[in-house]
C-alpha cells in the first residue's frame, strides 16, 4: 500500500515571498540617481512646472476655467468609474460604448493603461500594507502618494490575476494605442475645443491640458496616500484605509476608502445619500440610460455587521478604561453572624446578597445619612429597590463599587437580575470570555466554601 507523501504546511504567501526573493539593494545617496524612474520623474515634475509657467504667462478666461473643471471630471471619471470600479474591481458591467468612453477619458489622465493600472491596484488590495503592496502606506505618506512611482520598486508587486482584462477587446485596444490616446486626450482635445469654441487655444493648452492634468494626478494619488492616513475606520481597522469627507472631495468620491477596502466589489464608495461620491452617481445614471448593468452592492446586513463590530470594539475600549465592581468570585464569602459582627464595627449593609461598605457615602447620601444608618447590619434589598426609594441606575452602579463581600446562603444571585448593576448588563465580552467555563461573573449562594472569608 502506497503512503501519500507528507505535505508541509503552506506558508503565508507574503512571508514566503519575502523569505525566498531578494529585494533590490536599499537606495542610498550613491545609487539614488540610477534608481530613479526617469520617465515618471519627467512626467510628474514637468507637468506642474509647465502648469506654473504657463499659468503665469496665460490669462485665464472664465470659459476656459469652466471647461477645465469639466475636463478634470471627465478624465478623472475615466480613472474612478473606469479603471478603478469597472476594470480593477468589476463592480458593474458596461456596454461597449461606455467602455470606450471610459477607456478614452482614462487615457487623458496619463496614469498608465487600464491593464497596467488594474494589475497594480489588484495587488494593492490583495497585499495591503505589506511589502508586496506597490504603494504600501506603511512606507510613509509621500511614498504612497508618489514616491513609489519616482523610485524603482525594491520588490516586484505581489501576484495579481488580470487574465480577464487580457481578454477584453477594449482593454487590448487601449493598451495598443495608449501613447497616441494620451497625446490626443491630454493635450490635443483640451486645446482644440477652447480654440474652436471661444478662440482660446493657448488657455486650453495650459489650463485644460497641463493644470488639469496636474490636478487629476494628485487627486488620484490621494487615494493611495490621504485615504490611508486621514479619517476613521468604521468598518474594519485591520489595515490602514480610512473614510473622510476631505479625501472624498479630493478624489471625485473615492474618500470612503475603509468601506471600499472591506467591500471592494461594491460599485459605491459612499453608502449614505449625503456622502460625496459623484462616481457612484455617474455609474447609477449610466444604468438608468441603459449603458451600465449589474451594479454590485454588498448585502446591507453584512455591511451593518462590519459597522457593529467596530462600534463594539470602540465600546470595549471605553469599557476597559473604566473601573468596575469586584467580581463575586474575588470577594470573600461570609456568614450572617460574621456580617453582623463586622457591621457593629463599621457601616456595612446588605443588598441583593452583596455586602457593601458605605463608610465613604453615609454623609453624601442624597436622602440623608439616617436612611443608610438604620440599615447597617441589615438586608436593605427591598428598601433599595423601591420599598423606600426605587434608586436610579447610577445609584445601583455606584453601590456595586462598594462591594466587599458575598453573604453565604443569601439569595440565588445567578438568577437575580438586581444583583447585576445596569452598567454591566450590556457589558461587552470577547468570544473567549463567553466560552470560558470560568466566564460567569455572578456569585452563587449555594457554593460550598470551606473557609469563611474576611471582608476587605
UniProtKB/TrEMBL annotation:
Cofactor(s) recorded in Swiss-Prot or TrEMBL: Fe(2+)
Catalyzed reactions per annotation: octadecanoyl-CoA + 2 Fe(II)-[cytochrome b5] + O2 + 2 H(+) = (9Z)-octadecenoyl-CoA + 2 Fe(III)-[cytochrome b5] + 2 H2O
One Gene Ontology term of the molecular function aspect: heme binding
Topology in the lipid bilayer: Multi-pass membrane protein
Cytochrome b5 heme-binding domain location: 349-408
One Pfam family this sequence matches: Cyt-b5
EC number(s) recorded for this UniProt protein: 1.14.19.1
Superkingdom field: Eukaryota
Transmembrane parts of this sequence: 38-57, 69-86, 98-117, 178-198
Basic and acidic residues bias locations: 445-456
GO CC annotations on file: endoplasmic reticulum membrane
SMART domains assigned to the protein according to its UniProt record, in alphabetical order: Cyt-b5
Cofactor: how and how many bound: Expected to bind 2 Fe(2+) ions per subunit.
Protein's GO biological process: unsaturated fatty acid biosynthetic process
Region Disordered, residue ranges: 435-456
Protein localization: Membrane
Keyword entries, A-Z: Electron transport, Fatty acid biosynthesis, Fatty acid metabolism, Heme, Iron, Lipid biosynthesis, Lipid metabolism, Membrane, Metal-binding, Oxidoreductase, Transmembrane, Transmembrane helix, Transport
SUPFAM superfamilies, A to Z: Cytochrome b5-like heme/steroid binding domain
Similarity-based family: Belongs to the fatty acid desaturase type 1 family.
Role played: Stearoyl-CoA desaturase that utilizes O(2) and electrons from reduced cytochrome b5 to introduce the first double bond into saturated fatty acyl-CoA substrates.
Designated name of the protein: Acyl-CoA desaturase
Organism listed in the record: Mycena metata
